Amino acid sequence: MTPAIRNPINKLQVNARLLRSLHQRLMQAGTWMGTLLPQDCQLCGAQSGATLLCAGCRDALPVLPACCPQCAMPAFSGEICGACLKRPPQFDATLAAMRYEFPADHLVLALKFGARLPIASLLADLMLERIHSVHQSKICKNEMPLPDLLIPMPLHRTRLAERGFNQAVEISRHLANHLHRPLMTGAVWRHRDTLPQSELPLPKRRANVRGAFKSHTDFTGRYIAVVDDVMTSGSTLDELARVLKRAGARRVENWIVARTWTERNIRGALSV
Ligand SMILES: [Zn+2]
Ligand SMILES: [Zn+2]
User: Fold this and answer.
1) Residue 46 lies inside a defined structural domain of this protein
2) Is 33 within the bounds of a domain?
3) pLDDT digits (tens, 9 = 90+) for 107-143
4) For residue 43, with 0-12 CB atoms within 10 Å meaning exposed, 13-18 middle and 19 or more buried, which class applies?
5) What mean pLDDT do residues 83-95 have?
6) For the chain, what is the domain count?
């Protein structure tokens, strides 16, 4: 046995690498087989043909009505909301496919904590519908094209070793393939293992993630889409956008599966 493998920490790292490689192969095989075999709906288990959701469950997904283009919170007529006017975030826009409510939350949790990896392609498809509709309207107005590159929200290495995969990377891979945009997974990383934001009250979330990310990449002039599964207070995305802007990024958009609308952040968004 080599000294590198005898060290228990190195051994854990080697095992994690092997698991990740095995997981990539299973993902590829699963995607290929999914196009051939009849599927069961990921929510109710009914037969759903070649797709991962039956028509009934697809119709039950919580759509996002008119919302603030910058933070995706409720806003009259889709204008910039009161919270973004009062304290403009570092990111320029947020595109969310759904509200984080039943049954969208079941899909997100089944991917993240149930490791049902085929759900990543389903969530990416739902995001693509939203991305296409927003960008199509922008293209009509001769505004922004699609971003130069995609960056998935990084996980700290400890969390990655526990879970075995990063759900944001899995979703981003499908988006990058469909949109023919490069995916950068190592350019920004979490150098500090923060407490899960869901365990903290909203006022403490900003302090929890302050200084959590690092990057040595020059993003001068780049238009970047940051991909994540859920956006709640937006503090983590704001901190990542701050790091990307400091590294020269021209524009940062959040591409999110599901946006949490709580009573508290709805009040903040609608206040003027
Ligand atoms: Zn169903
Ligand atoms: Zn807003």
Assistant:
1) no
2) no
3) 999 999 999 999 999 999 999 998 888 777 665 554 5
4) buried
5) 95
6) 1
Calculate how far, in angstroms, residue 262's C-alpha sits from the geometric centre of ligand 2.
Answer: 14
Mean pLDDT, rounded, for 223-252? 96
Whether 214 is covered by a domain: the verdict is yes
What domain range is 73 assigned to? 57-270
For residue 38, report the distance from its CA to the centre of ligand 1, in Å: 14
Closest CA relative to residue 123, chosen from 136, 135, 111: 111
CATH number where 80 lies: 3.40.50
Whole-number Å distance, alpha carbon 207 to ligand 2 midpoint, is: 20
40: CA distance to ligand 1 center in Å?
8
Does 112 map to a domain? yes
Closest ligand to the CA of 89 = 2
Q: Which residue has the higher pLDDT, 120 or 197?
A: 120
Which residues have CB atoms below 5 A from the ion given as ligand 2? 68, 70-71, 81, 84
223-231 and 149-152 beta bridge pairing: parallel
Quick check: helix, strand or coil at residue 261? coil
pLDDT over 90 at 271, yes or no: no
Predicted confidence band of residue 32 (pLDDT cuts 50, 70, 90):
very low
Closest listed residue to residue 152, CA positions, set 215, 240, 243: 240
